[in-house]
Amino acid sequence: MNKVLIVGGLGFIGNVLSKEFLDNNWDVVIIDNETTYGVYEPVLHNLKIAERKLNVAGATLYSEDIFNTHQINFLVEKERPDIIINLANMPIAGVAVEQPILASDTMIRGLIGLLDAAKNHNVKRFINVSSSMVYGDFLTDPVLEHQICNPQEIYGNLKVAGERLVRSYTKLHNLEHSIVRPSACYGPSGNEAFVITKFLRAAIAGGTVNIQGANTALDFTYVTDIAHGIYLAATVPAAANETFNITCGNKRTLVEVADILKSWYPALTVNITDPNKLYPKRGQLSIAKAQSILGYNSKVQLEEGLKLFHDWLIKN
Q1: Is the pTM of this model over 0.90?
Q2: Strand 27-31 to strand 208-212: parallel, antiparallel, or no bridges (unpaired)?
Q3: Counted domains in the chain
Q4: Per-residue pLDDT of the chain in tens (316 residues, 90 and over written 9)
Q5: Helix, strand or coil for residue 48?
Q6: Residue of 208, 167, 187 lying closest to 11 (CA atoms)
Q7: Which terminus of the chain has a smaller tally of CB atoms within 10 A, N or C?
Q8: Is 274 inside any structural domain?
Q9: Secondary structure of residue 186 in the 3-state scheme
Q10: Is residue 310 part of a domain?
């Protein structure tokens, strides 16, 4: 049986990805520090972690921080995975601004230690989950993987640094890698700070959503689509040493999201202000490369994804 090590496997995306590997008869090992990073309400976070552990029953679980490099190396030596997938990350970009040392420990020092462990113990492929924030302003519509990366904030710059470390390290040590760039992920058990989560909770409560810029658009992607794209990047032979946008491939404005929710909950108030000049101009990402090489296609469009997430929130 093939074995995969997923760092961050109890996270929002990582948990869904771990389940997909289990469903495809892989031996799954998870390393996760189970932390709140100071942005989650502890009781709610612990409930989510407990639910996610049930979801991946059968996986081997280790509670460990990625920047504890000696312990990470020990666990990789012990488990001998064929593939490592790195999802260790800050839960939202703002944490990198507020806690830059913690962010760099996780996203840079921890990444280097994980790459070194992969080299030391003959891992076949290293998958690094990056972010569409690496692009900075989107210069084309849609944006393709070869656009020059020019992020404007700390999180995006750390992600760019991580991508470059992965490419250089794997080339130097003759390892395969794949890099995945998701965008605006949402869905059940997602971060309370995500825009879709905030909008849905406001709608259900009859509250207000605040939109910075009437034309602000994102390539919202349902969590199962992102997890499946990562699975393909890890397992398709032709994905070796390639970088992929893994998104819905269809930009939608925040006003469109609010309009859908307002059709369900007429009491929802929508407040539109000027765009945030400090936030990069974003939009749609091209998934043509992922379609061609991986056979990837998003399956959940925004209207269906909102309904699925809404029903989950009501039930839970």
Answers
A1: yes
A2: unpaired
A3: 1
A4: 799 999 999 999 999 999 999 999 999 999 999 876 666 677 777 888 888 999 999 999 999 999 999 999 999 999 999 999 999 988 778 888 888 998 999 999 999 999 999 999 999 999 999 999 999 999 999 999 999 999 989 999 999 999 999 999 999 999 999 999 999 999 998 888 899 999 999 999 999 999 999 999 999 999 999 999 999 999 999 999 999 999 999 999 999 999 999 999 999 999 999 888 778 889 999 999 999 999 999 999 999 999 999 999 999 8
A5: helix
A6: 187
A7: N
A8: no
A9: strand
A10: no
